[in-house]
């Protein structure tokens, strides 16, 4: 340490006393705020020595949300996989570039001439990118077509998904994830089954029989979806655990059933993706038309409507601001990618990942949020090409507080320990009964070897913005360490629970199965 020039020490005694009294305690006796900061850093450092993080990559940044002052950091510029924490970027970009009031429209058009109640041509179902389109919405559209006086269609029901490109799977998405609800094909015309709004899926409800050995009952939603069920799920003796395997063969819509459900078990829902979501939506719509008395001669086809085709019916989604709730609370991958492609279409005239992500990057750059290098390859975080830094998240968390859409974005983040599904979301069962319960709004992110959390915590007298990124861990999950870090930021003790004891080996006769169910809630 360099010594100060002698003249800098020539200070009158009165001035020196004034400096000491105004500045606080002398060196070696830090004031309460400095001491608290030192204790916090020491506690966080100690938590990061947990053996579950041995050999892992760890990045943390904590800032004062109001001032941007760095409260704590650990390798905050490290480029790591973000998993679903990337959805915070996509959501902010959508609110900024589309606006919270933006809606997705689905239309029915008559492509041909009408003679009385008969359309000599095709009826076109034109997708507008709605990730929340339900079978009931298609039924309502069919009812409006019938109410418009159409009783027959000499042509086909044509699926028009041309608002966006025809690239349905994101870059570097795992091929073996394709059957599962969290990895759907992305199309401008698609269908979901419930208000979780997982686009491009069908739902199977499995109910055990009354006696062991008999096949379980399987109900498909929507019932008219053109999928084929093969295999069967057996009913096992009561008292056992469900062991279902519901998957889809790649390249088509054959859904294969296997496994068992014990007598007396509650019905189990399984969500499975479909191949060619636009064709599935058109088939469900054609069936709805038949129910409303509108006959279709030539089944289902694909292609856009001709210029000048007359609009017979139109359905609009909830606004983007409302769709953010299932998007962020439930970590909905499909909605994320719909937002990216819609950003590309609205802002650049091209409904593609490339165009949409270019607009997202430009938005970040315009607002000074590209404070470190990064790479965004999709909207959901499902791709392992994505790379983010904790410091870059800190910039976004600070910027968001200045925007008119902040409250919409903040309220859509999961809330720690809140038992209400559409409030707590992926944090419903985390940090319950701690100082952080109800005081954390944050986005989760997890996939194999990745666990992350980014958002806000109400600390002692101030709001802190934080990001924790853990990558490349093996063995026990380090998620308890993330929760312990956040509890400490909320003013609680710096204690992470010990790792669980190793599980007993499973009997060799017990099958290992995969499931597309939502038990984990947070695949990415």
Automatic annotation (TrEMBL):
One of its GO terms (molecular function) is serine-type D-Ala-D-Ala carboxypeptidase activity. Residues 496-524 are annotated as: Disordered. Residues 496-508 have a biased composition (Pro residues). Keywords: Carboxypeptidase, Hydrolase, Protease, Signal. Residues 1-28 form the signal peptide. The keyword Cell inner membrane does not apply. Pfam families: Peptidase_S13. InterPro entries: Beta-lactam/transpept-like, Peptidase_S13. Its EC number is 3.4.16.4. Belongs to the peptidase S13 family. This is D-alanyl-D-alanine carboxypeptidase/D-alanyl-D-alanine-endopeptidase. The lineage of its organism: Bacteria, Bacillati, Actinomycetota, Actinomycetes, Kitasatosporales. The gene is dacB.
């Amino acid at each position: 340490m360099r010594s100060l020039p002698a003249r800098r020490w020539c200070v009158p005694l009165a001035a020196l006393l004034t400096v000491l009294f105004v500045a606080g305690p002398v060196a070696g006796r830090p004031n309460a705020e400095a001491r608290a900061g030192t204790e916090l850093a020491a506690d966080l450092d100690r938590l990061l020595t947990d053996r579950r993080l041995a050999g892992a990559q760890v990045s943390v940044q904590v800032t004062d949300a109001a001032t941007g002052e760095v409260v704590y950091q650990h390798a905050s510029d490290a480029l790591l996989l973000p998993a679903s924490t990337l959805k915070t970027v996509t959501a902010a970009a959508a609110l900024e570039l589309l606006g919270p009031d933006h809606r997705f429209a689905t239309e029915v058009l008559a492509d041909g001439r009408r003679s009385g109640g008969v359309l000599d041509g095709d009826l076109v179902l034109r997708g507008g990118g709605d990730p929340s389109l339900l079978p009931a919405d298609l039924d309502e559209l069919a009812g409006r077509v019938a109410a418009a006086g159409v009783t027959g269609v000499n042509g086909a029901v044509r699926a028009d998904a041309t608002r966006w490109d025809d690239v349905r799977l994101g870059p570097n998405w795992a091929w073996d994830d394709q059957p599962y609800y969290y990895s759907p094909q992305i199309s401008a015309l698609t269908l979901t089954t419930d208000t979780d709004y997982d686009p491009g899926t069908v739902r199977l409800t499995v109910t055990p029989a009354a006696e062991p050995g008999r096949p379980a009952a399987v109900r498909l939603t929507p019932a008219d979806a053109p999928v084929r069920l093969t295999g069967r799920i057996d009913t096992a003796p009561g008292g056992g655990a469900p062991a279902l395997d519901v998957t889809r063969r790649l390249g088509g819509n054959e859904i294969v059933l296997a496994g068992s459900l014990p007598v007396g078990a509650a019905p189990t829902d399984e969500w499975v993706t479909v191949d060619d979501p636009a064709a599935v939506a058109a088939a469900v719509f054609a069936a709805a038309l038949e129910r409303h008395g509108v006959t279709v001669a030539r089944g289902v086809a694909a292609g856009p409507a001709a210029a000048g085709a007359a609009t017979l019916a139109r359905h609009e989604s909830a606004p983007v601001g409302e769709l953010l709730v299932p998007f962020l609370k439930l970590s909905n991958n499909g909605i994320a990618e719909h937002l990216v492609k819609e950003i590309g279409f609205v802002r650049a005239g091209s409904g593609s990942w490339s165009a949409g992500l270019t607009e997202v990057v430009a938005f970040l750059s315009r607002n000074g949020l590209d404070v470190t290098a990064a790479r965004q390859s999709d909207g959901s975080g499902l791709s392992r090409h994505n790379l983010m830094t904790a410091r870059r998240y800190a910039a976004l968390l600070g910027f968001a507080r200045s925007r008119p859409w902040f409250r919409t974005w903040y309220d859509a983040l999961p809330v720690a320990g809140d038992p209400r599904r559409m409030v707590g979301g992926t944090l419903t069962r985390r940090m319950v009964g701690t100082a952080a319960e109800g005081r954390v709004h944050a986005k989760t992110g997890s996939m194999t070897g990745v666990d992350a959390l980014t958002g806000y915590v109400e600390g002692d007298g101030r709001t802190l913005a934080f990001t924790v990124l853990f990558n490349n861990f093996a063995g026990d999950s380090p998620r308890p360490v993330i929760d312990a870090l956040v509890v400490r930021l909320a003013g609680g003790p710096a204690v992470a629970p010990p790792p669980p004891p190793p599980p007993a080996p499973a009997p060799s006769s017990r099958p290992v199965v995969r499931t597309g169910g939502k038990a984990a809630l947070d695949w990415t």
